[in-house]
Amino acid sequence: SKFFKGGGSGASKGRGGPSPQEALARLRETEEMLSKKQEYLETRIERELALARQHGTKNKRAALQALKRKKRYEKQLSQIDGTLSTIEFQREALENSHTNTEVLKNMGYAAQAMKKVHENMDLNKIDDLMQDITEQQDVAQEISDAISNRAAFGDEFDEDELMAELEELEQEELNKGMRDVRLPSVPSTSLPSRPGKLPDCHFTFLMIKPCSSTRKRAEDEDEMKQLAAWAS
Hints:
This protein has helices at about 1-5, 10-15, 20-55, 60-120, 125-150, 160-180, 210-230, and strands spanning about 200-205, 205-210. The chain is an all-alpha fold.
């Protein structure tokens, strides 16, 4: 507060002191000015050092004067370094203060908004509302449980009696299948006179047409397999 009360332009004084943004801008301008002064002094130091080397023992008086000026420039340069450190510290402190002020201001706005939101709320009504919600959730759960339970339709029938009836139906189907089985007939054709000689068959392009005796034998074998399956 002391810093804001002292110094500044007439317009800033009329407003009761500079704003943080104005103070930070001035500090940055000062830092820039001192940095340029540093560069100038460093250049002068190098120049005076070169003059001292140039004169050397030939002109001791001029060489000593150059070294004295170099020392003064070095002293000023050291002072500027200290000043820049102080300004940098002050600028960082002001930036942090400004940031904290903005944070507190925004937190105050948020607190006021929360207060405005809650001013129309009654805690007793909220408790009643939450209790109603809990009760309705319990009712909904009971309805879901009731719907998801398996309906007990058909439980009045005896399951053992139903299984016995099913076995009778299966036995009837098995007996019917045994009656419908046709035994194979004796082949009417004679066997070939020599082993290895097959009956004549009809051949077509890339396809062999089975002869009648071979086809008959295959049918007989299928019937025997069906009979054996029913018997087992």
